[in-house]
């Protein structure tokens, strides 16, 4: 009996120890969860990335609830947690969000985001805006960027052509910057990849990396719209931007880009060289208003008077209208076109004889 009592006491002690350990584990677990939850909430109340000023377009539909707006902002990467956003709005008695299109950044605080949604205006004014027109080449873009950051145009251009810079950007944008830009005949790897647009920046003297990130992201965003069309045309991104750059450089304000595109397609189908003057000037590395006959003899893989098909890469940046035209040529039999001297009006021809007549009428005679 005595042995049984001792055994039961020992069992009771073990059970009490087990219960105590379980209780302690539960207390620690609850406490840890509470502490973890506290830190998580604190983190979710802060900006997603205080150093990321890249603008993201957010469209808030009419009639959107706080819950749906929170989910939209979380999906866009503007806030960390939609539920916490919902309760933040509730506990701070925030209301009156307006439907509309917004440009928000991951660096914005919840106060800035909610204020923007209430007023319908950006909470912060841009320090400066960088406008890159269509049809520019990297040396010209470098000059524009240099006016806004602490680097010379020469330093910017050197970095844009630097192998380490290219490798880093290719790793960051593998779907946009492919091995095609490393072709031995490519003059400048990033030529044609910096999208023409107006960009807003919210800090003085941003880094060149930050500027490139915004521009390349915009190129990727625009090109992504045409994924199906590229597949249908059996055209990759590099070919698309190359084709679009030719259209951009040839097109005047009065030109039908889809019609110019059709001329290029027709010439390719008939195994005719494209013979577009802007590629000659690019090969020469010059910006001129006229191409001379002697210029056409330049020995370069970009000279479309000497090569068949497209040059090895883009010769400038192209706007969306030229990108769209590269994928949607007009239905025509034209093989030639020229811009009328003085007016810029574009005339098309089906034969060389007809083209020469137009040249005599609208260019030669008008220059006299």
From TrEMBL:
Keywords: Cell membrane, Cell wall biogenesis/degradation, Lyase, Membrane, Transmembrane, Transmembrane helix. It is an enzyme of class 4 (lyase). GO terms for biological process: cell wall organization; peptidoglycan biosynthetic process. It is a single-pass membrane protein. InterPro entries: MLTG-like (IPR003770). One of its GO terms (molecular function) is lytic endotransglycosylase activity. The chain crosses the membrane at residues 21-41. GO terms for cellular component: plasma membrane. It comes from the Bacteria. It is found in: Cell membrane. Its EC number is 4.2.2.29. It catalyses: a peptidoglycan chain = a peptidoglycan chain with N-acetyl-1,6-anhydromuramyl-[peptide] at the reducing end + a peptidoglycan chain with N-acetylglucosamine at the non-reducing end. The record marks 250 as: Important for catalytic activity. Its main location: membrane. Functions as a peptidoglycan terminase that cleaves nascent peptidoglycan strands endolytically to terminate their elongation. NCBIfam families: endolytic transglycosylase MltG. Belongs to the transglycosylase MltG family. This is Endolytic murein transglycosylase. The gene is mltG.
């Amino acid at each position: 009996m005595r042995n049984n009592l001792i055994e039961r006491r020992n069992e009771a002690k073990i059970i009490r120890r087990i219960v105590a350990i379980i209780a302690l584990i539960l207390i620690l677990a609850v406490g840890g969860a509470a502490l973890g939850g506290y830190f998580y909430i604190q983190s979710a109340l802060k900006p997603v990335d205080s150093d990321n000023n890249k603008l993201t377009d957010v469209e808030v539909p009419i009639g959107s609830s706080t819950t749906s707006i929170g989910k939209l902002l979380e999906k866009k990467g503007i806030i960390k947690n939609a539920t916490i956003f919902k309760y933040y709005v509730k506990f701070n008695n925030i209301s009156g969000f307006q439907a509309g299109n917004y440009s928000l950044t991951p660096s914005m605080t919840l106060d800035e985001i909610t204020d923007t949604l209430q007023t319908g205006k950006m909470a912060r004014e841009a320090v400066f805006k960088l406008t890159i027109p269509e049809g520019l080449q990297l040396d010209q873009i470098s000059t524009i960027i240099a006016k806004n950051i602490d680097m010379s145009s020469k330093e910017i251009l050197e970095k844009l052509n630097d192998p380490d810079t290219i490798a880093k950007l290719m790793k960051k944008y593998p779907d946009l910057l492919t091995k095609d830009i490393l072709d031995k005949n490519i003059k400048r790897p990033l030529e044609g990849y910096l999208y023409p647009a107006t960009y807003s920046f919210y800090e003085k003297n941003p880094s060149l990396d930050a500027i490139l990130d915004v521009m390349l992201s915009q190129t990727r965003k625009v090109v992504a719209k045409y994924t199906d069309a590229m597949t249908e045309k059996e055209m990759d991104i590099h070919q698309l931007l190359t084709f679009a750059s030719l259209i951009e450089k040839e097109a005047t304000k009065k030109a039908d880009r889809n019609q110019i595109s059709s001329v290029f397609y027709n010439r390719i189908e008939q195994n005719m060289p494209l013979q577009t003057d802007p590629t000659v000037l690019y090969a020469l590395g010059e910006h001129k208003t006229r191409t001379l006959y002697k210029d056409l003899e330049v020995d370069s893989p970009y000279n479309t008077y000497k090569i068949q098909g497209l040059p090895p890469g883009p010769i400038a940046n192209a706007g969306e209208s030229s990108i769209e035209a590269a994928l949607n040529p007009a239905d025509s039999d034209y093989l030639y076109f020229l811009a009328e001297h003085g007016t810029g009006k574009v005339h098309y021809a089906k034969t060389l004889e007809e083209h020469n007549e137009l040249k005599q009428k609208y260019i030669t005679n008008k220059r006299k």
